[in-house]
Amino acid sequence: MVKVSVIIPNYNHACYLKQRIDSILKQTYQDFEIIILDDCSPDNSREVIETYRANPKVSNIVFNEVNSGSTFKQWQKGVMLAKGDFIWLAESDDWCEPTLLETLMEGLLANPNVGLAFCQSCYYYEPNIVKETTYYPFYANTENGREFIQKYMLNGNNVVNASMAVWRKELFNRVNTEYTQFKFSGDWLFWVSLLQISDVFVSGKILNYFRNHNKDVSSRFYSTGNNFIENVRLYKVLHQRNIIDKSQLTTLVKRQYTIFLSVKHSVNRDNLPNIYRAFGEAMGLNEVTKTYYSLRQRLYLIKQALLPKPAH
Q: Which range in 128-142, 211-225, 279-293 is most confidently predicted, on average pLDDT?
């Protein structure tokens, strides 16, 4: 029985797959299997994936005949196939240092209460540009999960990329599946849900490389502003679960609104009424508009936010 199941959910990332898979095969910790899931990619992903079929580390290759439309459905499919006690969701357009798995497994195996372990990530922008990295103020540390949520997981998702984390499979069925209803913030809600029921090991080492490009889901959400709609919705879920109180909810949503105002000029204008509606429902329309707009602007925005949502 293998210790770790490495799940690679792929969609349209043929040009990155070899680097992704090879970086896993080169891990110093070798007790793992690889499960490759292709979500009906239109590029030559199948051709690249097939070159690894005979590799002894590759236990499953699944090609969807129809696109699932959800990264999180692919996560679920991979976990169902997994034979390991731990899961590493290695996204198909990322890569990593050879010691990532060894470092995180040390933290997980040292303490049975630790359900999630993650390292730091480097944001890589093509061609060959590094703009920023994630940061943790300790070289390595184990923290109480619920306390970690309050310190590090409310103002933003500190586990910015699934590829930087390894977690216990036995906890998966204890996590509320509401995260699957999100397209952008679902991973954030998933990590918070894990942290509610387990402790966390964090390495301060930068061992993961998170590729930013125009094919990723995040880029599309930022351009439409749907990231704000989902983040506000996430905060409402956290309030419903008593993870944050009403005062925290208001503060966090207002912070999202301030960030939105700073980037509003770059957001698709057709989606602005939906964004204002989301903030209005969370904060109250008057609260959303009173500080930043003239009376005429306020009346227009309130009118737009109250329009019926378009039928799909």
A: 128-142
Residue 116: which CATH number?
3.90.550.10
**189 and 128 in a common domain:** yes
Alpha-carbon separation of residue 278 from 39, 154, 220, 235, 286 (angstroms): 31, 18, 18, 12, 13
- Based on the structure, what is the number of domains in the chain? 2
* Mean of the per-residue pLDDT values of the chain: 90
Q: Which domain holds residue 268?
A: 223-306
In this predicted structure, the answer to whether residue 40 has a pLDDT above a threshold of 90 is yes
Write out pLDDT tens, residues 110-137: 999 999 999 999 988 777 777 789 999 9
Where does the pLDDT of residue 297 fall: very low under 50, low under 70, confident under 90, or very high at 90 and above? low
292: pLDDT strictly greater than 50: no
- Which one of 158, 185, 215 terminates a domain? 215
Position 305 confidence tier, pLDDT thresholds 50, 70, 90: low
